[in-house]
Amino acid sequence: DDAHSIWEKLSASERREFTEMLEKGDVNGLLPKYTPWWLFTVKEPKIQELDAKVNTDFMKTCPEVWKEIPKFSINNPSDSIKFGVMNLLYGYAYTVRYLHGDYKNSSPEFVNTVELLVGKEGTLGGRVFELADTAVETAASRVNFNPEIAISQEFSRSVKQDVYKIIKGPCYTHQNYYVLAALSDLRTQYLNSISQIKQTTKDKNKQPPLSNPSPKISLFCEKSPDLDPKILKLHVRKIEFYLSWCVAYHETEFHLL
To answer: What is the pLDDT of residues 80-133, one digit of tens each?
Structure first.
């Protein structure tokens, strides 16, 4: 669309509101409302037959669960693992909302945002948490150190509720499904990013360097996320570890949350 013609059609109050949003950095207010998949729930009767069919429509709205989740093989795992999962889920939920659920072709950007929240200073970087509040708040506080991904305090607080909704799942009989779907999606984005980064590196090596690059080119070229495939591979293993743990311990470890 012609931006100039659209601007001309706006009323004075609409132009003022638009300008104020840009000045405040509240671009989220300019986008249509996004409803994440984990808000979809299924109501189950308190008393039902053992062989009663469960409404599985929620499976159509959320990411596909990884079909080859390995069996968890550690006896008596640490109680702190569940808090690491919560820290990671905050990074995931924040990023999904931040990108308005539109990230199929933006895996590196998606992963970069997650890394800023829960990478080096979070569970993916090896940090261990002993409390649920600390795990979630630590991820939320990382936004303050990365203003380029900040929306608002209200936005950051709302994502904390998202973490608990993902953990609670769509219904009682599938409590762990949303956690598995979220971590599976996160794993997919990491794997996609690794592939894209490798391909981009190959393409750059094939192109001859510019002898005298224009300042305008470097000014307007979008900076690619600075991601190291070797580190991302390690983080994929951590995500897979959490997936295995959730299959085995979600019900017993999260039932009090």
So the answer is: 999 999 999 999 999 999 999 999 999 999 999 999 999 999 999 999 999 999
Answer for the pair 65, 177: CB distance below 8 angstroms, yes or no: yes
Of the candidates 155, 181, 178, the one whose C-alpha atom is nearest the C-alpha of residue 254 is 178
Nearest 5°: the CA angle 249, 89, 69 is 45
Instruction: HSE, CB side, 13 Å, CA atoms: give it for residue 123.
Output: 29
Q: Taking a C-beta distance cutoff of 8 angstroms, is the pair 18, 2 a contact?
A: no
Query: Are the beta carbons of 91 and 117 closer than 8 angstroms?
Result: yes
Measured distance CA(122)–CA(124) in Å, rounded: 6
DSSP state string for 204-245 = HHHSPPPSS--HHHHHHSPPPP---HHHHHHHHHHHHHHHHH
| Cα→Cα distances 215→212, 221, 227, Å | 9, 10, 25
Whole-number CA gyration radius for the chain: 21
